[in-house]
Amino acid sequence: MKKQLLWCMAALSFSAASAQTYETQFARPLSDVLNDVAARFQVRLKYDVDTVGRVLPYADFRIRPYSLEETLTNVLSPFDYKFVKQSDKVYKLKPYEYARRTDADGEKMLAYLSGLYSDKSQWEQRREILRKEVRQRLGLDDMLGKTVKDAKPVLSKIRKFDGYTVQNFALETLPGLYVCGSVYAPRTKGKHALIICPNGHFGQGRYRKDQQQRMATLARMGAVCVDYDLYGWGESALQVGGKAHHTADAHTIQAMNGIWILDYMLANRKDIDPACIGVNGGSGGGTQTVLLTVLDDRFTAAAPVVSLASHFDGGCPCESGKPIQLAGGGTCNAELAALFAPRPMLVVSDGGDWTATVPRLEYPYLQRIYGFYGATDKVSNVHLPQERHDFGPNKRNAVYDFFIDVFGLDRNMLDESKVTIEPENALKSFGEKGEKLPAGALRYKE
Q: Which residues form a coiled coil (predicted)?
C-alpha cells in the first residue's frame, strides 16, 4: 500500500512537471507564481490588483534568482501591473499608472531633458515648442472660443472683517456653466497685487479652514486673492455632478476657469496692479498653478505647494486627463515649471509625499534653468522633511514670506488669529442645494 501511494505521488508530480512544456508556454497561474516569489525572496506582497484567472506564460523563466525587483517587473508587466517598494520586506502590487513613475524615472527624465539645452538660446527654443504644444494638447483655445462673451457676474454682498472683505462670485464661462468662488480683498485703498488661488483635492475644498486662513491673511497683508471650486466640486457639482471632475474635460475647464477669472478681475476691478499677478495652490492646485504659468504670460510670481515632481503628473484626470506631458517629444511638470524662468517662483515640498525628491532632483534642475538668465536667486525651495501632504502652518508661512518679498506685502498684518472662519454656505453663490441657480444654468440630476 505504501509503495502504491508513493507511486501515485510520483505520477502526479511528473504530470504537473510535464504540464510545464513548450506547448503550454510553461504557463502557471499568476497567484501561484507570486506566492513562490514571496517565499523565495522572503518578502510580503500586498495586492491592489486582481490575480483571479490570470495565467502567466513562461512563468518560471521570468524569475531572476539574483533580483526580486527584476523578477517582479518581468512577472507583472504582461498584465500592465507594477510594484511599489514600501519597505525592504514589503512590496505593493498596483495597476500601471501613466501619470506616476519612480523617483529614478524622474532623475533619468531630468538628465535627458537637461541634455536638450545648454544655454539660454536653446532653452528658449524648447520653451516656445512646449508652450505651443501644451496649449494645443489641452484644447484650450477651442474651449475659449465657446465661452460666453460679456456675461454678467453674480455677486454677493461684501462681508467686512478685520482688515479684509469677502465677496462671492459666479461667472458664466460656457453657456449655462458657472465657476464659483470668493474674492478676499484688503480694506486699504490703492493698487494691490492679485493672487489667483486654484484649489487642490483637500477635504472640504475651498471652504476648509486653512484655505480661508491663507486667503484672508494674504488679503490682510495687501493682496486681492481669488479662490474657486474645482470642476465637479462644491457648487460646480450642483451643475455637473461629482463624476465630471474625473474626466479629461475637467483638465481643460479648470485651466479655462483660472484664465477666465484673471480676465474678469483685470477688466472689472480698479484696485489691481497688473504688474503684480501671482498664482498659488497646493496639491492639485499646485499642478494647476504650474499649468496656468505655461498658458498665460500675465503671471509675475508663482508658488506651487506640495505638488511639483518630475515623476508625477497629477493623480486625477483633472490634472493629467489631457496628454500635455507628451508635448515636445516628452516633458514633465518640473520642465513645465521651468518655463516660468526668470520670474520669481517658490516651490514648497515635504518628506511625506512625492515632492520628497525636490531638494535632490527638481530644485537643482530649476536652478540650472534660472541660471541661464543669471537669476538663480529668483527660484527658491522650502522643504519640510518631517511634514506630510497638507497646506499646514509652515507651508502657509513659506507662501506668506514669498509674497511679502515679491509683492511688498505688509508683514505687520500677518496674523491668522484675526481671520474669521465662515461656514461653507456663506461662501456659496447659489445656496446649499443650488436653489439660487439662474434660469438657463445647468443643473445636475442623478
A: none
372: nearest Cα among 108, 129, 124, 132: 124
**Fold category of 121-427 in CATH:** Rossmann fold (3.40.50)
> Cell numbers 502526479 correspond to what residue?
12
Q: How many residues does the chain have?
A: 446
What is the tens place of the pLDDT at every residue in 339-364? 999 999 999 999 999 999 999 999 99
Question: How many Cα atoms occupy the beta-carbon half-sphere of 40 within 13 Å?
Answer: 16
Q: Which residue has the cell 441657480?
A: 437
Supply the CATH classification number for the domain 20-95: 3.55.50.30
What is the structure's pLDDT at 10? 39
Query: Within 10 A of 340 (CB to CB), how many other CB atoms are there?
Result: 27
Return d(Cα 369, Cα 221) in angstroms, integer.
Answer: 31
How far is Cα 50 from Cα 374, in angstroms, rounded to an integer? 52
Q: Specify whether the CB–CB gap between 235 and 178 falls below 8 A.
A: yes
State pTM to two decimals.
Answer: 0.91
Instruction: Tell me the pairing of strands 90-95 and 81-87.
Output: antiparallel
- Rounded-to-integer distance, Cα 233 and Cα 245, Å: 7
Domain ranges of the chain: 20-95, 121-427
